[in-house]
Design a protein that fits this description.
With 250 residues, the protein is of the alpha+beta class. 40% of the residues lie in helices and 18% in strands. The two termini are 33 Å apart.
C-alpha cells in the first residue's frame, strides 16, 4: 500500500508520465527532503519535511482547528471512521480522517481516474451545495460510473436527490460506492452561509436504526464545526423508522 511507499514505475503509471521524467522529479523532491527512498525496496514515500509543511498549513487554516475536536468526538461516539472533507480542484479532499474503534472498520478507497461524486454521501452533499449549473456540469452522464447495483447514474434522478439533500440537511450512501459500505454526511457552513466542507462517517452496511443514530451524531458534529466558523445551521430533517428521510428516498 501507499503507506509503505510506491515504486518508480507505479508512480509513473499513475501520473501518466515517462519513467525518466518522474525519476528526475523524485530526485528533486528527495534532495529537498520532501520524499525518502527505502534502501531495500527502493520505494518512495512521504518525507518528514513534507509532513511538517502539511501540519503547518493545517494549523494556519481555519477549517482544521475549527473541526478537529468535533471530528474526534464523532469518532469516539460513533466508533466509526470519521472524516472532514472539502472540494479541491473538483475532487474530494480529506482534511481530517480518524479511524474508529469498532472491530470492523471501513474506509474510503479512491479509484484513480474515476469520479465518485455521484456515488458517495460526501460527494453528493458537496455537489448539492454547488451552484446548480456547476453541479449539473459535474454530473454529465459520461462521468457517472455504476460502481454497484445501487449507484444512481441518471443525471435527472441525481439532480432530484441533490435537492432532497439540501432540504433535509444530510446525504446518504446506501452501498452506492462499494457493496457492504454505507456513509452519512452533513454540511459545514461558514459564517457567510456557504457550505465549505462535509462531516461524514463510513460504516458497514447496517439496519435503518443504526443509520438514524449516525445521522444524529454526524449532524451534531457538523453543527459544532459550523458554529466554530461563526455559522448556525438548521438541524436536519428527521430520519424515519422505515429507513428513509421524511419526504424522500435515502
Amino acid at each position: 500500500g501507499e503507506s509503505r511507499g510506491l515504486p518508480l514505475g507505479e508512480i509513473a503509471d499513475r501520473l501518466g508520465l515517462n519513467v525518466s521524467t518522474v525519476h528526475h522529479l523524485l530526485a528533486t523532491l528527495r534532495h529537498r527532503g520532501l520524499i525518502v527512498q527505502d534502501e531495500r525496496s527502493r520505494a518512495y514515500r512521504i518525507g518528514y519535511r513534507l509532513v511538517g509543511l502539511v501540519n503547518r498549513f493545517l494549523a494556519e487554516s481555519d477549517l482544521y482547528p475549527a473541526a478537529i475536536g468535533a471530528i474526534q468526538r464523532l469518532r469516539d461516539a460513533s466508533g466509526e471512521t470519521s472524516y472532514l472533507s472539502a472540494f479541491q480542484d473538483g475532487a474530494i479532499a480529506e482534511v481530517i480522517s480518524l479511524t474508529g474503534v469498532r472491530p470492523i472498520q471501513v474506509r474510503r478507497v479512491h479509484r484513480p481516474g474515476q469520479s465518485s461524486l455521484h456515488s458517495t454521501a460526501t460527494g453528493k452533499l458537496l455537489l448539492a451545495h454547488l451552484p446548480p449549473a456547476e453541479a449539473a456540469a459535474r454530473l454529465a452522464a459520461p462521468s457517472l460510473s455504476p460502481f454497484t447495483p445501487n449507484t444512481r447514474t441518471d443525471p435527472g434522478g441525481l439532480g432530484t436527490e441533490l435537492s432532497l439533500i439540501r432540504a433535509r440537511g444530510y446525504s446518504l450512501d446506501d452501498e452506492e460506492d462499494y457493496l457492504g459500505v454505507m456513509c452519512v454526511a452533513a454540511p459545514v457552513f461558514a459564517a457567510g452561509g456557504d457550505c465549505v466542507a462535509s462531516v461524514s462517517v463510513s460504516y458497514p452496511a447496517s439496519p435503518p436504526a443504526r443509520t438514524g443514530e449516525l445521522i444524529d451524531l454526524v449532524a451534531t458534529a457538523a453543527a459544532a464545526v459550523s458554529a466554530n466558523l461563526g455559522a448556525v445551521p438548521a438541524r436536519p430533517a428527521a430520519f424515519g423508522a422505515d429507513g428513509h428521510a421524511a419526504g424522500g428516498r435515502g
